């Protein structure tokens, strides 16, 4: 069950360009710490790939540009979103599991525990920005319904082998991936798409960061499909809290809990099998400290994957406060989704659709 509990004992200094400080971000608006690990390493550009859920992260120097950037410091594309230009096709995936349902999101039947959701915003977005890369670190500028987001391929773990990731708008596919967990339980990779100020210097103008006091609602939805992949990976939201420039704590929402790797922190015995107001399903809460920063995780039970969910992020913020588990920070810096992959091989693991709507 818990090969990665040693993550909290991680203390190490990364390669040149990294910060050894316990502060996730000392005021630099570029580099930021990974959720559950040491501060991100970077080259002279100040960029960093993100790790999440309890590990360190490093980068070979992702560079910024008007198009798509590669981790070797080579910028491709002179403009537009994505490496091969934009497309206005709708996201893949049809009627899938109902909000909070389980099962494979690529099917057209409701998942266990969730009826079809006719009011869903998922599956209807106009996607722009497409590309395909086998670079360990690559950044793609994409959009959904005209709202910009950033995608990072993010093969940051020490056990990373290789991968090929393709994307269109906020949907992406891990076509192939090989690798293994690090000696301290670090995931090999965390391919991610996000809105807000996250772990690379690109900050899409999507409405985040935003002070919590100004947010009436922060709706988000994600649909993904495992496509037969039953191995050691999660499917998780990574929500960064702070003051708009500095990172102060993490909230994670795990829609899939693998059998051998667990979130950073410890299971909170007082908060197992709990519900969150306005959010479907039950959750097991893990919480603790990571690199001097607090983290709260809401985790689906093993074997009860949710392939689709839509919720208001502020309901999780309020749930943490109600339980006395709130993290510091008066601003939602970023909302990200992706797959922490501890072990390959992975083939055609899909993130079908993702959106963030700030009101």
From TrEMBL:
<feature type="region of interest" description="Disordered">
    <location>
        <begin position="19"/>
        <end position="64"/>
    </location>
</feature>
<protein>
    <submittedName>
        <fullName>Uncharacterized protein</fullName>
    </submittedName>
</protein>
<feature type="region of interest" description="Disordered">
    <location>
        <begin position="76"/>
        <end position="136"/>
    </location>
</feature>
<feature type="compositionally biased region" description="Gly residues">
    <location>
        <begin position="76"/>
        <end position="85"/>
    </location>
</feature>
<feature type="compositionally biased region" description="Low complexity">
    <location>
        <begin position="29"/>
        <end position="64"/>
    </location>
</feature>
<feature type="signal peptide">
    <location>
        <begin position="1"/>
        <end position="24"/>
    </location>
</feature>
<keyword id="KW-0732">Signal</keyword>
<dbReference type="InterPro" id="IPR013319">
    <property type="entry name" value="GH11/12"/>
</dbReference>
<comment type="similarity">
    <text>Belongs to the glycosyl hydrolase 12 (cellulase H) family.</text>
</comment>
<keyword id="KW-0119">Carbohydrate metabolism</keyword>
<dbReference type="InterPro" id="IPR002594">
    <property type="entry name" value="GH12"/>
</dbReference>
<feature type="compositionally biased region" description="Gly residues">
    <location>
        <begin position="91"/>
        <end position="103"/>
    </location>
</feature>
<keyword id="KW-0624">Polysaccharide degradation</keyword>
<keyword id="KW-0378">Hydrolase</keyword>
<keyword id="KW-0326">Glycosidase</keyword>
<dbReference type="Pfam" id="PF01670">
    <property type="entry name" value="Glyco_hydro_12"/>
</dbReference>
<dbReference type="InterPro" id="IPR013320">
    <property type="entry name" value="ConA-like_dom_sf"/>
</dbReference>
